[in-house]
Design goal:
The complex is a heterodimer of chains A (about 425) and B (about 525). Chain A has about 425 residues and is mainly α. Chain A has 20 helices and no strands. The longest helix of chain A has about 35 residues. Chain A starts with a helix and ends with a helix. In chain B, helix 5 packs parallel to helix 6. The chains are: A mainly alpha (about 425), B alpha/beta (about 525). The interface between A and B is large, with 44 and 49 residues.
Chain lengths: ~425, ~525
């Protein structure tokens, strides 16, 4: 049975998300690798067998039980902490529950746990748990696309952390505010926040945070086209990470350095850095998210240099990782990029990838920027294959999603939503 | 070494070394054999001159070899093994360099060309092997890999073989292992270029029909005969045999050649979209139908509609296709208007449609409506010397795209192509030659440019062979079973269900055996 058929039997209930994850990760390609349709293979066209799913079901159920056990345990521990009058420890337990939910991809539930934690943290004399909770809430809100809320949490965290001379908390709050600005294309504001975080990290002699802030500033310089500044800043970050053998950070900074080299018109050097970045990711925690991230950037380079075969290789590897790891958000990006690749190859059948991306994004049901990104790329694809009218329709849809989203945010700083949407598209 | 197309024979170095001492290695370097036969001691002045020249050549060749040793965990056993490699390699005149880990190795591989990488594997050797194979395939000169592990298992040995790893060795490295690696590496260097023949391709748009095999000549004749009529054609053949190219050729030779050629891969399109894709839809016919849209049948009016992988659609949709083909009219989804469609339909499948009919999965009436003329395309492995012609055509086609001028293929590479199974037929060959064109460094395609699964057949040492024990004794039943399971899995592309079916065992039994053998 194909995944697209199997999905029709599965109600769209939140509680069944792990079952959907099991369905996706059990899916295999039954096409011979050389069938004409293999090049157009999407998740929906993979096949699943009930037997395979049944075999793997016990593992999934065990994970679910372990997850809920950990949540219950966190709650009971928090209760114990209150019994022995240790509310700070209770906040830690609730924060742990929030992170467990976040790790399981249940972001909205995670936010609820963090809200409960914040309620207790606010009453504490020690403000560190409050800062920690606010930072977690800020990050989660940003991931969920609620930038206004994220900014509010980060600002509160900043105020409390500064008042308590909490350097780590202040740095994290500045970083968070910088990231929120980046999401809204507020480059100068972002630079201000990252620079402030860098100064604080330098004062605290925190080498890793210095490296991370340099990376953030380097990435910002790249995005604003200051490639020389980006090169210098990223090199400083790189040197720090390598000296301390922070593999994950190395993988990320090398990826950004590769993007700068690509922008400088040096694709061969960029490719070498992408490969090295993959190796660092491999040497580190082997987080599939990091590997998928690097492979997609690498694939973009291949697409830009018309190395389509290599691009396809990278994207398909990322696809396999994302399917095995149930990384839905990344799968949406993967199919969007496959569609873009087919557009560059003038293969009009590439629309199947955009349709798959739209369907998966619909299942995710959040992150308007992701939806807008799909339609924007879909519009470019339609334009490339000569369907001008449809291209305009999709472009308009992308623009509308962004305007709606930004209007909902009531962006601070006086910038008008339509201006920002215009700058984005 | 740059090898001209006229060169036919190269000095062959087979190093017969048996002791782990530098003195003996040097001595052996000076008394190497050529083509496996020991040179007579002393002899005429001419022989002495020849020996001196060959020795110098060999030393020069040896100096050109470069090995990179790569650490992983930094354990004592690993450091000792890699130090041995460097010591033995240095004594043999091979240049070596050491890097502590995989990321630094990638950096080093990007800067220079290496012949061989001795890599210690860490805690997840199976995954790491696959990683290394991928990294080296993309590195300049496609260096070979020798993997060093704490405890080589049968599963790892089989995986190494599949990935084209030159050898899989224990960290308790012996000199004999090293010399065998060196011997097998040099064995792979004996390749002679064979100039590609000129190719007379029949261009079909951006595609080409290439081949002189009698089966293909029959197909060309059939295309010419059938094209002028408006008859529906059914193309049968395995994946990658060129069904779409033939469909395009029929269109190009036909009376509707000036009309559009519209291709639809029925297996690739989501089921819920296929109907609207084929027949179009009216505005608002379903969620997402923002505007009225013409389907592929309409777009192909006055031309040819190519329905690829026709077996992959529901019976309900087959009924609609039948109506469209029979009555030459369609209705858009959500619309009532009947639209006449003057379209020639060419359909294709790699499935056995008669079996599908027997199973109730394909409509018999549609089959007979489509199969007015049937063309069976041969497998690449049944097309004899067309393989060389096609390889030549693809080399000529892809070379310029990657800035290369490829004029020849080595004898060994061609031999490997000829022995390959070609499950993906011409499409697979095209892919192999394109990849080779990417990594080729001069005008000859060699074994090192072929994918790992091809390269393993050249110079594969005994260590990677699971079916024989030490000293070439016959392997155990378990070893043979593991090897056979691995082959079947490779055949099914890793699909367990299909593998279990071929092996005639239950999936659970297969799962147990895979675990048992570490596959």
């Amino acid at each position: 049975v194909k995944v697209e058929q199997a999905l029709r039997l599965l109600p769209g209930l939140e509680a069944l998300a792990p079952l959907r994850g099991l369905l996706f990760s059990s899916a295999v390609s039954d096409e011979g690798a050389w069938a004409g349709s293999a090049q157009k293979l999407t998740l929906g066209k993979r096949v699943v067998s009930s037997e395979e799913m049944r075999q793997r079901m016990s593992n999934v159920l065990a994970q679910i039980v372990a997850h809920f056990s950990a949540l219950y345990e966190a709650y009971v521990t928090a209760l114990e902490c209150l019994e022995r009058d240790d509310p700070a420890e209770a906040v830690s337990s609730l924060l742990r529950a929030g992170r467990l939910e976040e790790d399981a991809g249940r972001l909205a539930q995670g936010r609820v746990w963090l809200g409960v934690a914040l309620g207790i943290a606010k009453g504490l004399q020690n403000r560190k748990p409050e800062v920690e909770t606010l930072l977690s809430l800020g990050r989660l809100s940003a991931v969920l696309g609620s930038l206004k809320e994220a900014a509010r949490h980060y600002r509160l965290a900043l105020t409390v952390a500064e008042g308590g001379f909490d350097d780590a908390g202040t740095i994290a709050a500045c970083e968070g505010l910088g990231n929120v600005e980046v999401e809204q294309r507020g480059w100068e504001e972002a630079r201000g926040w990252f620079s402030r975080a860098l100064t604080l990290a330098e004062n605290a002699h925190d080498e890793r945070r210095i490296g991370q802030m340099l990376h953030a500033l380097g990435e910002l310089a790249r995005r604003t086209g200051e490639l020389q500044t980006a090169t210098d800043t990223l090199r400083r970050a790189h040197e720090r990470f390598e000296a301390q053998m922070h593999e994950e950070d190395m993988a990320r900074v090398l990826t950004t350095e590769a993007m700068v080299l690509a922008d400088l018109g040096l694709p061969a050097k960029a490719a070498a850095l992408y490969r090295e970045a993959l190796a660092w990711a491999w040497r580190g925690q082997r987080e599939p998210e990091t590997e998928v991230f690097i492979r997609l950037k690498f694939a973009r380079l291949h697409i830009e240099t018309a190395s389509f075969m290599e691009a396809e290789d990278e994207i398909r590897k990322a696809e396999q990782l994302a399917i095995s790891g149930n990384l839905m958000h990344q799968l949406v990006q993967i199919y969007t990029l496959l569609g873009t690749l087919r557009g560059r190859q003038a293969d009009e059948a590439g629309f199947v990838f955009f349709e798959q991306a739209i369907e998966l994004a619909r299942m995710l049901g959040r992150v308007p920027s992701l939806h807008a990104e799909i339609y924007q790329e879909y519009a470019a694809f339609k334009h490339a294959v000569g369907a001008r009218e449809e291209s305009e329709d999709y472009l308009e849809r992308a623009r509308q999603i962004r305007v709606d989203w930004i209007e909902r945010l009531s962006v601070p700083g006086g910038r008008r939503a339509t201006d920002i949407a215009g700058a984005i598209s | 070494m740059q090898r001209g197309l006229t060169a036919r024979r190269y000095p062959v170095q087979v190093w017969l070394v048996h002791r782990s001492s530098t003195r003996q290695l040097r001595s052996l370097t000076n008394n190497m054999t050529v083509n496996g036969s020991a040179l007579p001691p002393g002899g005429s002045a001419l022989m002495e001159h020849a020996q001196a020249t060959e020795s110098a050549d060999r030393r020069a060749t040896a100096k050109r070899l470069r090995f990179l040793t790569v650490g992983a965990s930094g354990s004592e056993a690993e450091l000792a093994a890699l130090a041995h490699v460097r010591e033995w390699a240095g004594a043999a005149g091979v240049e070596t360099e050491h890097v502590p880990d995989l990321p630094r190795a990638i950096r080093r591989l990007a800067l220079d060309r290496w012949n061989l990488v001795f890599a210690a594997l860490s805690d997840r050797p199976a995954e790491e092997l696959a990683w290394w194979a991928d990294v080296l395939r993309r590195s300049e000169g496609a260096p070979r890999l020798v993997a060093l592990v704490q405890r080589p298992s049968m599963g790892l040995a089989l995986q190494s073989q599949k990935l084209g790893v030159l050898d899989l060795l224990s960290l308790s490295l012996r000199f004999e292992d090293f010399s065998r690696v060196l011997e097998s590496l040099r064995g792979t260097e004996m390749e002679e270029p064979i100039a590609f023949p000129p190719v007379d391709a029949e261009m079909v748009g951006a595609h080409a029909l290439v081949g002189q095999h009698p089966a293909m000549l029959d197909i060309y004749k059939l295309i010419v005969r059938v094209a002028p009529s408006n008859a529906t054609v059914l193309l049968l053949g395995e994946s990658g045999t060129g069904k779409e190219v033939v469909a395009r050729a029929i269109h190009q030779q036909g009376s509707n050649a000036s009309g559009p050629f519209v291709a639809v891969n029925c297996a690739a399109i989501p089921e819920n979209l296929l109907e609207s894709e084929l027949f179009g839809h009216e505005k608002g016919a379903f969620t997402g139908a923002m505007n009225r849209r013409a389907g592929r049948f309409e777009l192909a009016i006055g031309g040819t509609l190519f329905l690829d992988e026709i077996a992959d659609m529901s019976l309900a949709l087959q009924a609609k296709i039948l109506r469209a083909v029979q009555e030459r009219e369609i209705e858009r989804v959500g619309g009532g208007e009947v639209i006449p469609v003057d379209v020639r339909v060419v359909a294709a499948t790699n499935h056995d449609l008669k079996a599908a009919i027997a199973q109730g999965k394909f409509r018999e009436d549609l089959y007979y409506r489509l199969a007015i003329v049937t063309i069976d395309l041969p497998r690449l492995s049944d097309r004899g010397d067309d393989l060389l012609l096609l390889a030549a055509y693809f080399a000529q086609h892809f070379g310029p795209r990657y800035g290369k001028s490829i004029r020849a293929i080595s004898d060994r590479a061609l031999d490997l192509l000829r022995r390959h199974e070609w499950k993906g037929n011409v499409r697979e060959l095209r892919n192999v030659i394109e990849r080779a064109a990417v990594v080729a460094t001069d005008e000859t395609l060699r074994v090192e440019h072929l994918p790992e699964e091809f390269r393993v057949r050249v110079g594969a040492p005994a260590a990677a062979s699971p079916v024989t024990g030490p000293d070439d004794t016959l392997g155990t039943l378990a070893a043979n079973e593991a090897s056979h399971i691995a082959r079947v899995l490779a055949h099914t592309g890793g699909v367990h269900g299909a593998a279990a079916e071929i092996l005639g065992i239950h999936r659970n039994t297969l799962a147990r055996k895979l675990k048992e053998y570490g596959l």
